[in-house]
Amino acid sequence: MAEKEEEVCFKKETVSKLLCSFFKEDNTRCSDATLLMREMLKVFVQEAALRSLKQAEAEDCNQVEIEHFEKILPQLLLDF
């Protein structure tokens, strides 16, 4: 199985809309926060994928399943 390193990327507009949806005032700007949140989401997704892979390997599985992700999710959320 060939390993391919893919870059995790979130669209700036998507993250901006997500962040701004939580603000009560319409004139709140979140330009710098959007860049930081994109980086945080990138790290979170990469860490989730890596931990899920390690969980699958620990169970001698050839493929990562949703069950592996579900097992690592509680600790992942506590760590972030």
UniProtKB/TrEMBL annotation:
Subunit field text: Heterodimer with CENPX, sometimes called MHF; this interaction stabilizes both partners. MHF heterodimers can assemble to form tetrameric structures. MHF also coassemble with CENPT-CENPW heterodimers at centromeres to form the tetrameric CENP-T-W-S-X complex. Forms a discrete complex with FANCM and CENPX, called FANCM-MHF; this interaction, probably mediated by direct binding between CENPS and FANCM, leads to synergistic activation of double-stranded DNA binding and strongly stimulates FANCM-mediated DNA remodeling.
Pfam families for this protein: CENP-X
Protein name per Swiss-Prot or TrEMBL: Centromere protein X
Gene Ontology MF terms in the entry: DNA binding
GO BP annotation list: DNA repair; kinetochore assembly; replication fork processing; resolution of meiotic recombination intermediates
Subcellular location: Nucleus
InterPro entries in the cross-refs: CENP-X
Superkingdom: Eukaryota
This protein's GO CC annotations: FANCM-MHF complex; Fanconi anaemia nuclear complex
Major place of residence: nucleus
Assigned keywords, A-Z: DNA damage, DNA repair, DNA-binding, Nucleus
CDD domains the record matches: HFD_CENP-X (cd22921)
Source species of the chain: Xiphophorus couchianus
Family per similarity comment: Belongs to the CENP-X/MHF2 family.
Signal peptide: none
